[in-house]
From TrEMBL:
<dbReference type="InterPro" id="IPR010359">
    <property type="entry name" value="IrrE_HExxH"/>
</dbReference>
<feature type="domain" description="HTH cro/C1-type">
    <location>
        <begin position="28"/>
        <end position="82"/>
    </location>
</feature>
<dbReference type="GO" id="GO:0003700">
    <property type="term" value="F:DNA-binding transcription factor activity"/>
</dbReference>
<keyword id="KW-0238">DNA-binding</keyword>
<dbReference type="InterPro" id="IPR010982">
    <property type="entry name" value="Lambda_DNA-bd_dom_sf"/>
</dbReference>
<comment type="similarity">
    <text>Belongs to the short-chain fatty acyl-CoA assimilation regulator (ScfR) family.</text>
</comment>
<dbReference type="Pfam" id="PF01381">
    <property type="entry name" value="HTH_3"/>
</dbReference>
<dbReference type="GO" id="GO:0003677">
    <property type="term" value="F:DNA binding"/>
</dbReference>
<dbReference type="InterPro" id="IPR001387">
    <property type="entry name" value="Cro/C1-type_HTH"/>
</dbReference>
<dbReference type="InterPro" id="IPR050807">
    <property type="entry name" value="TransReg_Diox_bact_type"/>
</dbReference>
<dbReference type="Pfam" id="PF06114">
    <property type="entry name" value="Peptidase_M78"/>
</dbReference>
<protein>
    <submittedName>
        <fullName>XRE family transcriptional regulator</fullName>
    </submittedName>
</protein>
<dbReference type="GO" id="GO:0005829">
    <property type="term" value="C:cytosol"/>
</dbReference>
Amino acid sequence: MTLLDSELAGAAPQPEEAGDALTLGRRIRERRTALGLTLEQLAAAVDRAPSQLSAIENGRREPRLPLLRALAAALDSTVDELLVDEPPSERAALEIAVERAQRGAVFRSLGIQPIRVSKATGDETLRAILGLHQEVERLHRERAATPEEARRANTQLRREMRVAGNYFAELEQAARELLDSVGYAGGPVSQRAISSIAEKLGFSLHYVSDIPHSTRSVIDRRNGRLYLGNNLPSRDARAPILRALASVVCGHEEPRSYGDFLRQRVEANYLAGAVLLPEHATVELLSEAKQQRQISMEDLRDAFAVSYEMAAHRFTNLATERLGLQVHFMKAHESGTLIKAYENDGVCFPSDALGNLEGATVCRNWTARTIFSQPDRFNPWYQYTDMASGGTYWCTSRVEKAKEGLYSVSVGVRFEDVKWFRGRETPHRSRSFCPDDRCCRRASGELTSKWEAAAWPEAATPTSLLAALPTGTFPGVDANEVYAFLEAHE
């Protein structure tokens, strides 16, 4: 069991599509109806607004334990009876199945307005909707055959990260122990300190010109050597060293599946961030910034001399657990492709039918896309976006450059939490209706009628479009090249 596995073992389960909340809501509604109580009467009995109870009965909100106890008492029931997993009736089971389907990633990707399931909706209508949805799901599964294992593993891992608030105490503890071992006293963690950590773990650092092209680093455990390319900037060498050493610190073994491989990468990136932005010092800085209502990714980046992306990602590790903030993070290529994403604030990221985010196209009206059209690349871009899926979100975004081109890194929160952040006074505002393709993907009727029959573009097809998933113990790594490299340097 890895550090991430053991940390998640104690986390409370969070159903993918709120199935438990739907069942609980139906049981409460059925019990209330059987007792002849109106929604208003039950709300008065538990001292809550009728709208709150309506959201609970519809499975859109889960009651906390004190409210659940009050509901059980008012309904002459028990908490255990209300929490039974089985739907209270055959009709309720059908309603729950349709509601769950309409809230899933496949239905959302179709851009169809969900129907309101009410008493007047006939059983045959519900069965027809459910049958159609199941057939669409089957077709999507067939089309997603090649990279399905990787996408499913990635979706599952992201779900686990969301349950944990993207905070993993054992990795934080491991980072503290590494820093304590080299006498870290505060401020940016130096390259010398990272070299000392490597030495404490029994490894010498070697910068070489012939690092295998399919690798970022290579560890020789037999001779205690860590090889990196000699073209790394001195400051940026810290993160690659820490990511490489994470396999030693976290006790990684050869991955048995793509899921293991992805989990190990998450742990390596997390550990590197936790060392370079130590928890205590980072939380102290962010807490003070929150008091002053001036939380800023730029300040976090500058305080610890790290990249903007690492600062933004590290913020998501600590925002929920240590600052009480629910947030989202995204990295998008200038083409609009979503590269990385995390959320626990309810923002509706684009996704494929399996719920996987990476590779989906980001709405042109989101901050992560609008920033590319801004002339000032030296200051952050702030924007409010009104979402068709519900609610308004505020984001701060910045453009960075990589060998693959430009990409944006964005951090955002719900409207009610923007009061803690610098940039909340921005006048910039946008609206997004995605996944409705009329939002930003469909041309106007005038342009369509003019060019539809005349345009014949050649697609710039990615070389990986039809490629099989990389094979090998470490997917994408040329083992023959690595072994030959180690033999040459021994």
